[in-house]
């Protein structure tokens, strides 16, 4: 299914609303790194995100070691960023530990 890809001014606008996230160098994905108290907290967070991701059929790429989780969001069906990444990033921000 084709999904609209975000670019230009619209992309700039949504990125301004996601200050915890960095645009990958190729401009096709956003990333955020999170640190938790321990593995249990990190994995609990990942479980909550996984349930939401499956519900909305939009899945993160991520990497976890102990208390550290690095998340990359992109939309394969759009070959870049879409509103789905923005929505999942906002959901993740709602669960992220205070920095
Ligand atoms: C068939 C299924 O709906 C698609 O493959 C979904 C699944 N999860 C997905 N996740 C992400 N990140 N991008 C997608 O384009 C995507 N597409």
Characterization of the model:
This is Putative pterin-4-alpha-carbinolamine dehydratase. It is an enzyme of class 4 (lyase). InterPro entries: PCD_sf (IPR036428), Pterin_deHydtase (IPR001533). It catalyses: (4aS,6R)-4a-hydroxy-L-erythro-5,6,7,8-tetrahydrobiopterin = (6R)-L-erythro-6,7-dihydrobiopterin + H2O. One of its GO terms (molecular function) is 4-alpha-hydroxytetrahydrobiopterin dehydratase activity. With 99 residues, the chain is α+β, with helices and mostly antiparallel strands. It has one domain (8-95): Gyrase A, domain 2. The protein contains 3 helices and 4 strands; from the N terminus they run H-E-E-H-E-E-H. A 4-stranded antiparallel β-sheet has the order 1-2-4-3, with helices on one face. A hairpin with a 6-residue loop joins strand 1 (22-23) and strand 2 (30-35). Helix 2 (39-56) packs antiparallel against helix 3 (83-95). The longest helix is centred in the middle third of the chain and has 18 residues, at 39-56. The radius of gyration is 13 Å and the shape is globular. It starts with 7 loop residues before the first helix and ends with a helix. The model has no long low-confidence stretch (mean pLDDT 96). The structure holds the ligand C[C@H](O)[C@H](O)[C@H]1CNC2=NC(N)=NC(=O)C2=N1.
């Amino acid at each position: 299914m084709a999904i609209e890809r975000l670019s230009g001014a619209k992309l700039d606008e949504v990125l301004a609303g996601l200050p915890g996230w960095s645009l990958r160098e190729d401009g096709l994905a956003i990333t955020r790194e999170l640190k938790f108290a321990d593995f249990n907290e990190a994995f609990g967070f990942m479980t909550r995100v996984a349930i939401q991701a499956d519900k909305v059929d939009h899945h993160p790429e991520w990497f976890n070691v102990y208390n550290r989780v690095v998340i990359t969001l992109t939309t394969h069906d759009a070959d870049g960023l879409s509103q789905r990444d923005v929505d999942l990033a906002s959901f993740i921000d709602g669960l992220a530990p205070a920095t």
